[in-house]
Structures are given as structure tokens and as C-alpha cells.
Flavodoxin (Paractinoplanes tereljensis), 166 residues
Amino acid sequence: MRVLVAYGTTGGGTGEIAAWIADELQAAGLTVSLVPAGEVTGVAEYDAVILGSALYAYGWHADARRFVQRFSQRLTGRPVWLFSSGPLDVSADTGPVPPVRHAETALRELGAREHQTFGGRMTTDAHGWLGHVARQLAREGHAGDFRNPGRVRAWARGLADEITAS
Ligand SMILES: Cc1cc2nc3c(=O)[nH]c(=O)nc-3n(C[C@H](O)[C@H](O)[C@H](O)COP(=O)(O)O)c2cc1C
């Protein structure tokens, strides 16, 4: 079975989460395409889709939002899962984080089965404006890597089970 893992990222942190997910799906025997959401040209060949986005200013990355607009009509009836990556603290691992408005829209438009929020990453080695913000956050004690590969990978193994069973 073929699975698309698509993601919207600015600093690369969400792309890496998507890669962990793709890795677990592949290990479960699925054929996986890992593609930035803005580079996806079609979804016809996929049996299931996982779409993730970085969170900026309480919203989804533009590439992930556009993916929803471009493909919502074509994914009807196929299993879709969503994730967001953002919180720069442990909140995503200590309790459910409600989806932001764009994620709620994506849940509805894509008929997605579930949405998860994972912790984010903001480190001072980021480039450009992101690096500037990161260094500011670091001075305020908020920068760091709050992603949890174990939780992400466990979630992906659950998805692999559901996809394989469907
Ligand atoms: C300007 C700015 C705004 C942000 N806004 C949010 C936000 O609203 N909610 C959130 O959970 N995280 C927010 N974050 C944290 C990012 O979502 C986090 O760093 C994420 O890992 C970035 O993903 P990326 O590396 O894939 O771009 C923000 C970060 C920056 C720099």
C-alpha cells in the first residue's frame, strides 16, 4: 500500500518529524513518499495520507493550508491523519492540545481521522529571521527542541496498523 507523508515547514523541524513517521511506516512494510506539501502534484496513487504542519502565530504553514485546498475533493473516502508541530515546552506531551483553527478546517475538509500536536523545535542555529527570533526566545529561556521522537514514532506505528488493516 502506498502512503503520502506531506509536510509544511520553515525551519525543518516538522520535516524531520514527517521523516520519523515515514521511517516507521516503511518499517511496517508500507511504500512511503515523503514530500514537502508544496511539492505534491497529485494524490491519486496513495491509499492513505498523513499531512503535518509547523505552527506559526496560531496557524498552519501556508503549504499545508494550500494542500488542504488543492486536494480536499480528491481525498474523499481515503484515510487521512493530521499533525501539528509547535509548542516550545512540554505541553504537547503532558495532555491533549486542541487543534488550531487551520487544523480544524483540515480535519473537516479532508474528513481526517485524527489530529495530533507534537512539540516543536526552535534552536539558535536557525538561519535568517527564524534565527533572529530563536536567539530572542533563547534569551527569554524559551528556545529548545521539544520534539519527542518516541511519541511520534509510536503514533506512526499505530497508523501503520490501521492502514494495513484497512
Ligand atoms: C514567529 C514564530 C511564531 C510561532 N508561533 C507558534 C504558535 O502559534 N504555536 C506554537 O505551538 N508554536 C509556535 N511557534 C513554534 C514553532 O511552531 C516551532 O518552532 C516549530 O517546531 C517550527 O517548525 P519548523 O521548524 O518545521 O518550521 C512559533 C515560532 C516562531 C518563530
User: Anything to note?
Assistant: Residues 9-14, 54-58, 85-88, 120-122, 130, 133 surround flavin mononucleotide (CB under 6 Å). Residues 149-165 form the longest helix (17 residues).
